[in-house]
Design brief:
The protein has 328 residues and is of the alpha+beta class. The chain contains eight helices and 17 strands.
Amino acid sequence: MSDINPSASPSVRFVEVEEDQAGQRIDNFLRTALKGVPKSMIYRILRKGEVRVNKKRIKPDGRIQAGDVVRIPPIRVSERGEAPLVGQGLVDALEGAILYESDALMVMNKPSGLAVHGGSGVNLGLIEAIRQMRPDARFLELVHRLDRDTSGCIMIAKKRSMLRHMHEALRQNRVNKVYHALVQGRWETRDNRVEAPLRKNELKSGERIVKVQEDGKPSITLFKVLRRFGQTATLVEAKPVTGRTHQIRVHSQFMGHPIIGDDKYCSDEVNRQMRDVGVRRLFLHSARLSVDLPDGERLEISAPLEAPLVEATERLANQHNEQEYGQK
């Protein structure tokens, strides 16, 4: 997307559609070009004919092609819609969290506690922070999402063609995502496949919670035991075959082994006990990710677990060893 003919007006923009943007609906194009502008306003300026493509009116579902010139009328974005400036500490942390970057794709080790995007009381998310860090990038969009408290591998597309490629790969289950989770109790090796339908529910408070229900969406997660800490906890590998909201968290709870640090699905008592060991957040981490890139290259990325959680597992191991030694 590049502005042309800026002398036409100090406030009207004329934007030339680039090859990577060809085939988009005009409403989606404008939502990217006018970050922070309500959708209702975008549809209003389209209906009123204030948006022109090659000097002609266009309907909201009309598609644009490379080389088209889009007239965008002057619009003042509400200051309330603007994300707060990213602090230098977060900038440094995110720059250090980049695991892979090309001209079309970025993969980051998202920190726990950072939402992937703003909204629902969150002013600043990962994608808003990255857009501020890379002001010259013409296109930056999340390929997929992680829960706010989940850490690890997350992909950000830097070109629309890469976003389309990755979305198709996700639909065809060609993106291999592997999570690590510390769960309560002793997970048995035979429990390596959980197939239980999930349904999203909203409580009176407005909080969203997911439950196993017969009328829910089919959901499958594959589990593998990585390390046991006696009867106290188990470090497991989880591979979601389907991609439902809170899937790994709810399937773990369904098996009687909720993820430690989970304030929705694990008990407060267990979470309090494990905070003494050093688990002060949801112990769910997107550890590995692999997918074929458009040129056929196989991308395989691993994200290291943050030091406090590694140290917590070592404390659990030491406690277990001391208990075993004391019983002999």
